[in-house]
Every structure is written in structure tokens, then in C-alpha cells.
Amino acid sequence: MKKTGSDFMGVEKAEDFPFAQPDELVTTVVDGSDFVEKKMAAMKAHATQISVDGPFFALSNNLGLQVFGSEYYTLVHGEKAGPFDSKGRETDIFAGVK
User: Fold this and answer.
1) 72: Cβ–Cβ under 8 A, 6 or more apart, which residues?
2) How many angstroms separate the CA atoms of 19 and 22, rounded?
3) Cα separation values, 91 from 9, 73, 95, Å
4) Contact 56, 64 (CB under 8 A)
5) Which of 76, 85, 96 is nearest to 21 (CA)?
6) What integer pLDDT is reported at residue 36 of this predicted model?
7) Whole-number pLDDT of residue 57
8) Residue 28 has pLDDT above 90, yes or no
9) What does the alpha-carbon distance between residue 26 and residue 56 come to, in Å, rounded to a whole number?
10) pLDDT value at position 90?
């Protein structure tokens, strides 16, 4: 992020993000890479709440984050259900929902 000249603050390592969790807590990964452009457009539509600078965004804390196509989740109730990726994580957020 520093290399792009973004005005947003950054962090030196992932552990510095106040909301980051260890990778081993991730149970589900959803590939939304086909929707990144729409996601960016939606974020830009909320200019009073979110600032967008190239591929980065920041909330009111001005902490810059890059927009990616994958979304990561942790299942807190129930059992994981396939399909799974190569790391054993669900790839469908609604897997197992009845």
C-alpha cells in the first residue's frame, strides 16, 4: 500500500490489524472474484462512510485495506459441510443450511 502512494494509514504486519484472526479459525472461504468491480462500485456509493483509493478502502479509522475477491468466515455454530477447498474449508457459505 505504501508503494502506491495511498493516503490511508497502513500496518507493518497482519497482527497489527485490530480485527484480524489467525488463519486456523477460518472455516469458510467464498470466491467472489467475479464481483470485485461491483463491490468497489458499491463501496464508492457510500462516500460518507467509506473512502476508496484505487484497490484500497478505509472506514472512519482511515486504516487502509485492499479489496480482494475472497471472503473469509468462521463457522460458530453447526458442522462444516462440503464442498471443501484443498485446506478443508467450506467454499459455499450456505453449505449445510436446511
Assistant:
1) 26, 28, 29
2) 10
3) 32, 10, 8
4) yes
5) 76
6) 82
7) 66
8) yes
9) 23
10) 96
pLDDT of residue 44: 78
H/E segment holding residue 30: strand 28-31
Contact, 36 vs 30, CB < 8 A?
no
Q: Is the pLDDT of residue 35 over 80?
A: yes
Contacts of 65 (CB under 8 A, 6+ apart): 56, 57, 58
Question: Which residue, 70, 9, 69, is CA-closest to 37?
Answer: 69
Calpha distance 16→19 (Å, rounded)? 9
Which own/partner pairs from 89-93 qualify as long-range (CB within 8 Å, at least 24 positions apart)?
89/26, 89/27, 89/28, 89/29, 90/27, 90/28, 90/29, 91/28, 91/29, 91/30, 91/31, 92/28, 92/30, 93/28, 93/30
pLDDT tens track for 43-97:
778 777 777 776 676 765 566 565 678 889 999 999 999 999 999 999 999 988 8
Spatial contact of 19 and 61, defined as CB atoms under 8 Å apart: no
